[in-house]
Amino acid sequence: MPLLRPSDLFPQLTVTVPGGTAVPVPGSFVGGFGVVLFNRGAWCPYCAAQLRAFQRAGDSLAGAGIGVAALWADDEETTAEFTARHGITFPLGHSADVRAVAAQTGAFLSEDPLYLQSAGFVLGPRGTVIVSVYSSGAIGRLVPEDVTGLVRYVRQHAASS
Q1: Which of 30, 44, 112, 137 has its CA 20 to 30 A from that of 98?
Q2: Which pLDDT tens digit goes with each residue over 49-73?
Q3: 110-114 long-range CB contacts below 8 Å, 24 or more apart?
């Protein structure tokens, strides 16, 4: 799969959170903007920092009409422990089929052990990609302030056209 570019429709993914609830992405963002984050795993300090940053910015993001969902290959137990320890309240999906996700989105993989490299997508109200950020390693990822600024910019320019 080639990389997802602006105006591409984001594929329908299901994020399964600890406890078994399945959250449709981008379906859970209908009517608003959304951020989808792919992370390497709980063991990655850069991933943990990114997820904590999006959690800290939760009120600001929600106030701007921006939802957040994330996923990784870690198992349910690891994900439940991580979400509890860091107070993550947005959907953080576990046990992702990384090969299928990579095939649908163009995300980079690590083979041994198998996991997704970091990727982030800002989606518009119709589930189309506004911006995609792909990393081939630990660094290079979306931050909440850039997301809110981008959504503000998109809204301002849509209102003025």
Answers
A1: 30
A2: 999 999 999 999 999 999 999 999 9
A3: 110/40, 114/73
